[in-house]
Design a protein that fits this description.
The chain has 97 residues and is mainly alpha-helical. The protein has a domain of 67 residues: Orthogonal Bundle (Arc Repressor Mutant), CATH 1.10.1220. It is 55% helix and 10% strand. The protein starts with 10 loop residues before the first strand and ends with a helix.
Length: 97
């Protein structure tokens, strides 16, 4: 593997067919404890998808955080929606369709 140029030590970079992509790699480290069975399943998934375990965990956490943020926002706006007659998700989908 070629040595990373000093200028790009905190970045991941690659070429696509039409552009140069640069992503910041400055991240914090988080240590967690996992039950052995979960760790084994995660490792197997990593091998099957040919992805590093850290990528899978990072994406899982990203999705979890997005869902929780959505739930918190939904909880805040729910009283306003109900006041307008939107009682179910179907009510909203009918309105915007």
């Amino acid at each position: 593997m070629a040595k990373r140029h000093e200028l790009f030590r905190h970045f991941d970079y690659f070429l696509t067919s039409s552009c140069f992509v640069l992503r910041c790699l400055t991240m914090e480290t988080l240590t967690i404890r996992l039950p052995n069975e979960l760790k084994d399943h995660l490792q197997k998934l990593s091998e099957e998808q040919n992805k590093p375990v850290s990528d899978i965990v990072r994406e899982s956490i990203r999705r979890y955080v997005a869902v929780e943020r959505f739930r918190a926002l939904r909880k805040k706006v729910l009283p306003f929606a109900e006041a307008q007659g939107f009682l179910t998700d179907e009510d909203i989908f009918k309105e915007i369709s």
